[in-house]
Amino acid sequence: MADGAMTATFLAVIGGASLLAVTARRLRPSDRLPSLDGWALADRSLGPGWTWLLLGGTIYTAYTFTAVPGLAYGNGAPAFFAVPYTVIVCPLAFVLLSRLWSVARRHGYVTAADFVRGRYGSPPLALVVALTGILATMPYLALQLLGIRAVLAAGGLYPHGATGDLLMVALFAGLAVATYRHGLRAPAVIAALKAVAVFVSLTAVCWLVLRRFGGPGAVFDGAGRALGGTDAAHSPLLLTAGQQPAYATLALGSALALLMYPHVLTAGFAADTSRTLRKVSVGLPAWTALLALFGFLGIAALAAGVRAPEGGAEAAVPMLVERLMPGPVAGLVFGAIVVGALVPAAVMSIAAATSFVRNVYVEYVHPTATPKRQVRIAKAVSLTAKVGAVAFVFGLRDQDAINLQLLGGVWILQIFPAVAVGLYTRWLHPRALLAGWAVGMATGTYLVVREGFSSIVPLDLGAGPLEVYAGVAALLLNLTVAVTGTGVLRLLGVTRGRDATDLPSRLLPRRHPETGANTP
């Protein structure tokens, strides 16, 4: 049961988030008429500081902060794939996100599907991009609630039965109201509190852990012994040769997939300039360091002898915090993780609603909808998404949400050719991209389901089975079909839609008159 000091600190953090959400309308106020740009993207007005807070707070979710240490607690080194994966994201964001922002700002695009619609002139391809994004986002949204519940339960702050459910609903209700009224500005201001609370609390926890164990070496040796070895170097804590392909492909595939998620693009599109996005991309590794420390705490939980419930390894770090930390510090950590769920959950609901309105409702239901009506529909859909996530968490097993989120990562990766490759070349035919997407979706789903909803699957390449990330295997097949199909369609002379963007049709060198150098 939580003590009074822990509860007071926890409520102070949650109360601070609520107060900040109320002031969200003051962030970059605008006298413009209602529009999706204003509600969903904060009028594309966020500078480097706010964009760094929002993008980092959106990418690094509460479930990430519990799942990564939970995986480290249960499996050791494989959990740290999240560190190189988020490191790879930074240069990708520097290149891809800033270029996509420039095109979106110039043409008024709000979603990735808007870009695909303009680039290829193909409504069906844009529709599947939008629907894939929504489909992959919804279980991710539900996982934020699972992260909140795991933290509160481990800290003794989640009452059993209907009372606990009402507490969850109350926490989410404040977020829903703030997001409904202020759009992206609400999670942007809450992200500031998230950054302060998480960085401060995690620094304090890691310092206390290192002080108790006598340094990081002692922590890793203790964890190695807990896993059945003699020390860290002679234990299951380290990667084996057979795990390395899975580790590498999981890191690469996850990095490519992350920038395709609608909530990440929504946070990026809110920046005021492409230069801002490049600056923020350089600063994102600070959040990656934070994630690495959370993974370290999973190792520390092993060393401390924490016994997480079976099937509930994500509770290992909250249990460690409750055991080792003073009440106020523990309350601060729990509050920080809960606030850490509110930011991405809000952005996810906004992104899913915006994709639905722009690429389904306006495209196929009400093409003449005014900007004011689009905002009204987006608000309603955003609220419905949050209610659906709550119902999903209460109505289904936790493992169901996790399984769907694993599939979501594989699914969202299949739009990479249409979006990311399309930023640099229009050579791929939209019908071939559709065929590649369909093959990739079917293959990825089959591989994951066949292995009992494991995203790591064995492939027999002749020299024995090789374990790789299912999303990468499906993406390679997707690209093969798209390239082959494009060649066939070009030979047959099949026409394609008009390109409404001002991007070059293919990647060509550009000569700089000052130096004579060629650059793409």
Topology of this structure?
Layout: H1 4-22, H2 36-41, H3 48-59, H4 62-75, H5 82-107, H6 112-120, H7 123-154, H8 162-182, H9 185-213, H10 216-226, H11 244-258, H12 262-269, H13 274-283, H14 285-303, H15 316-324, H16 327-365, H17 371-395, H18 398-413, H19 416-419, H20 430-450, E1 456-460, E2 465-469, H21 470-492, E3 510-511, E4 518-519
Antiparallel strand pairs: 1-2, 3-4
Helix pairs in contact: 1-8, 1-9, 1-16, 3-9, 3-12, 3-13, 3-16, 4-7, 4-14, 4-16, 5-11, 5-13, 5-14, 6-7, 7-15, 7-16, 7-17, 7-18, 8-17, 9-14, 9-16, 10-14, 11-18, 12-16, 14-15, 16-17, 18-20, 18-21, 20-21
Family: Belongs to the sodium:solute symporter (SSF) (TC 2.A.21) family.
Main location: membrane
Organism: Streptomyces composti
Average predicted confidence as pLDDT: 85
Q: Superfamily at the CATH H level? A: Sodium/glucose cotransporter
Strand content: under 5%
Tell me which CATH architecture applies here. Answer: Up-down Bundle
In short:
It contains 21 helices and 4 strands.
Keywords:
mainly alpha, two-stranded antiparallel ribbon, Sodium/glucose cotransporter, 520 residues, disordered C terminus, single chain, 3% strand, 4 strands, 21 helices, two-stranded antiparallel sheet
